[in-house]
Amino acid sequence: MLTVGLVLISLSAGPAVPATDTVPRFDIAVSCDTANKAASGIGRPVQACLDDEEKARTALEMRWSEYPIHARQSCTESVSVGGPPSYVQLITCLEMRKQ
After folding, report:
1. Is 6 domain-assigned?
2. Domain region containing 50
3. Contact 29/16 with Cβ under 8 angstroms?
4. What is the residue-wise DSSP string for 40-83?
């Protein structure tokens, strides 16, 4: 009886969707602002950073399923450590894993 109850609960909970099925959402404004502050005035304009991040996200959305799931998961985790995550860093990590 316990087994039937567990099966019913798991079916009613809906499908489990791994976080790596879609491109993660990053706050690129924070990422670019942090990068700009770290550059101490010698960096490029924040708008250029925002443009690069948007281009990288668009590229990731088009090619996300081409990357192995383990690479998507580990790269997403690694770019989220030590500061705000970046789509440019994420796509770089994924491309390096493909080689």
Report:
1. no
2. 27-98
3. no
4. TT-S--HHHHHHHHHHHHHHHHHHGGGS-HHHHHHHHHHHTSSS
**32-36, 37-41, 52-56, 66-70: which range is least confident on average?**
37-41
71 within some domain:
yes
Confidence of residue 13 (pLDDT cuts 50, 70, 90): very low
Is the pTM value of this prediction over 0.85? no
With a CB cutoff of 8 Å and minimum separation 6, the contacts of 19 are 73, 76
Task: Identify whether the C-beta of residue 84 lies closer than 8 Å to the C-beta of residue 34.
Answer: yes
The dihedral built from the CA positions of residue 18, 30, 84 and 50, taken in this order, carries a sign that is: positive
In angstroms, the CA 69 to CA 8 distance is 29
